Structure formats: C-alpha cells, structure tokens
Amino acid sequence: MMYVLLALATLLLSYANGANDNFKAVATIYGSSTLSYRRALALATVAQILGSIASVVLAGALLAKFTGQGLVGPDTLADGRFIVAVALGAGATVLLATRIGLPISTTHSIIGGLVGAGVALSPNGVAWASLGAVFLLPLLISPFLAFAIAATLYPMARHVRRRLGIDEVTCLCVGKEVAPVAITSDGALVVTKTGLSLTVEQAQNCQRRYSGSVLGISAQGAIDSLHLTSGLSLGFARGLNDTPKIMALLLASGSIGVNPSLGLVVVAVMMALGGILHSRRMAITLGQRITEMNRGQGFVANIVASALVIGATLLGSPVSTTHVATGSIFGIGLWTRRAHWGVVGQIVAAWIVTLPIAALLASLAAITLKAF
Predict the structure, then answer these.
(1) Is the pLDDT at 214 greater than 50, yes or no?
(2) Does 176 score more than 90 pLDDT?
(3) pTM for the full model?
(4) Cβ atoms of 268 and 49 closer than 8 Å
(5) Taking the mean position of all CA atoms in its chain, how far away is CA 84?
(6) Which CA distances in Å does 5 have to 124, 147, 369?
(7) Taking a C-beta distance cutoff of 8 angstroms, is the pair 354, 138 a contact?
(8) Which residue intervals of the chain are DSSP H helices?
(9) DSSP 291
(10) Which of 204, 178, 175 lies closest to 191 in space, CA to CA?
(11) In this predicted structure, what is the pLDDT of residue 203?
(12) Radius of gyration of the chain (CA)
C-alpha cells in the first residue's frame, strides 16, 4: 500500500512542478513575441527533458541533500509515511499556486514538506540548524543575486549595443515587411516611410525591433537566436535542478525499492506533461504581467538565471529556479521602469507563504497516515 501511495504522491509532485515551472524558461520568449505560446512551450519541454536526463550525471550532490539526511533522523527517514507526506504537501502547494497563476518554488515546497512531515512524525527530530545553513540561506540569497546581476548587466549590454550602432525602433510588421514608425509628442504613431497615422487597434500590433547589423549579421536575427538559445539553456537548467529534488524523495527510504532509471523517466515525463497541460496561467503571469520586455532584455534575464541555476546545481546548492528566473526579470523591470509592482508584490507574498503552507499540508498528511 505504501508503494502505491509513494508512487501517486511522487507523480502528483512531478506533475505540479512541471505545471508551475516549465514555462518559466521561455516566459521572456513568449512575452516578447519571439515565439508563439505553443512553440515556446515545445522549446521549454524539450529543454526540461534534456536537463532531467543530464541530472543523472551532474546533480548527484543536490540529490543527496534532498533525501532529508541530516535534516531528520534515520528512523523518520526510513518511515514510508514521511516520504509520502512530504510529496503530498509539496505537490498540493504547487498545484494550488498554479491554479491561482502565481509562480512559486517547488524547492521551498519540498523543504516545507520535509519540515512539516518531520515534526508530525518526530517532534524533536528536526535539525533546525541544518535547515537554516544548508537550505534556507542559498534560497534567500539567490533571488537577490539574480536581481542585482540582471539590473547591473542589462545597462552594460545596452551601452555596448548602442556603441555598435544598433538602434531599437518601433515598427509595424505586415507579413515579411517591417515598417518603422515614429512616436509623436502626443503619443500617436506615424509610419515613417508614408506618414500615415496608425489607429489604437493598429498600434497594439507594433513591435520593438533592432535595426542594423554586426559583422554582416542582422542585429535582430542575432538577438533572436541568442534569446532562443538562452531559453533552451534556462529550461535545461530547470530540469537539471528540479529533477534530482523529486528523485530524492523516491530514493530517500531504503525500505522502498525504486529503480533509479525508471524513476528518472517517470519524473521527467510527468514534469513535461504538467507543463504541456497547465502552463497557460504561468505564461500570462511571467510573460506579460510582471513587465513589458523586448528580446534583448529577455536574453539578459535568461542568461543570468541559467548561469546561476546551473552553477548552483553543480555545487549542490539548493536554489529555486523560480526565484532566480523571476528575480532576474524583476531586475530588468526595475531598470526599464516598466515593472508592474503590484504583481511583483503578489509573487513575493506567495514566496513567503510557500514554505509554511507546504509544511502545514505535509504535517496534516503525516498525521492522517499515522492514523491508519
């Protein structure tokens, strides 16, 4: 019976993780209209699966941390009810946030689940010092680091672009033809070549593009290619970082035999499935509600987030892909002054309550399981 509950709870958590997290890798690609929703989602799915596969080789240190060793005692760790309660609490928390449309951290949810289930099954068995030093410190620092790096790197990148003679222009795209437009003092848009004014409905279809070239390569084409590559990199980083955390729950209890290869395939597939079926709300929140962003800005946000997540994963440091990716978008929004701070406040509030809610739900699950 415990085998079945463990399998179902892990499937729930994997699915919830994909639903809330997969699209984060391509949020800037979708938000800047580089790709449509479906194509961006396909890119994110492929990248996540590649990262999940690579985690077998590259993320061993991170997997070891999330088995719960050092945070709870060996007796609690060997109790199958503990692992099931952790997965149920974390999965339910992430699914709830996904339904609301708020990006939260699966990492925070799992840590909250570990603590809540641990306290429920062994009130004096949680190593609180280990919780702060090993888990919470990297999680608290990483989003601020992403925010600071993105806010610093973007103006530097913009300065280099301008020195290379690459200008950003507002344009109306009709088929394959790009028609630059000028913005008048009263906010009206006028087609530069013909002098025709655009109505409000037409103005909504205008995009910002880069003019000029570098070494004979179109600036817009180069930025688009770099932006897509950065999204692939961030999706890879997400799969690399999140898969071992969920796999760790399957491997945590020596009394529950799980084939690691089979477990990896199941986790990776369920993460992909969750993203495919339930990413729409995350796409709107991350791609459109936080800040308006062009393709160059999206590239900077993605490359900062992917570098931090991959580096932390290789070091075995538990960071949240959600916090890092969203923190870098916040950094861009701060500099461009286009951030919607009401939405930012909602997301930060969701981050704050993630861990206690997951702990509460996992504790209730563990208490329920103890009664049977």
Answers:
(1) yes
(2) no
(3) 0.83
(4) yes
(5) 24
(6) 26, 39, 10
(7) no
(8) 2-21, 27-31, 37-58, 60-65, 74-77, 80-100, 106-121, 128-130, 137-163, 200-203, 219-251, 260-277, 280-284, 295-315, 321-336, 341-370
(9) B
(10) 178
(11) 46
(12) 22
What lies within 8 Å, CB to CB, of 178 at 6+ separation is: 171, 172, 209
Do residues 257 and 7 touch, judged by C-beta distance below 8 A?
A: no
125 pLDDT tier (thresholds 50, 70, 90): confident
What is the C-alpha to C-alpha distance for residues 323 and 314, in angstroms, rounded to an integer?
18
Average pLDDT over residues 212-220: 75
Distance between CA atoms of residues 166 and 99, nearest Å: 41
pLDDT digit string, tens, across residues 16-46: 999 999 999 999 999 888 899 999 999 999 9
Tens of pLDDT, residues 72-87: 877 887 788 888 999 9
Residues 6+ apart with CB under 8 A from 341: none
C-alpha distances out from residue 146 to 18, 33, 325, Å: 22, 23, 7
Report the distance separating Cα 237 and Cα 149, nearest Å.
18
Mean model confidence pLDDT for the chain: 84
Tokens at 77, concatenated: 């760790």
* Gap between the Cα atoms of 100 and 176, Å rounded: 38
Separation between Cα atoms, residue 260 and residue 250, nearest integer Å: 8
- Return d(Cα 250, Cα 14) in angstroms, integer: 11
Tokens of 142: 């990483």
Q: Which helix (H) or strand (E) holds 208?
A: strand 206-211
Neighbours of 288 (CB within 10 A): 15
The maximal CA–CA distance of the chain, rounded, in angstroms, is 77
- For the segment 87-111, the average pLDDT, to the nearest whole number, is 92
pLDDT at 171: 58
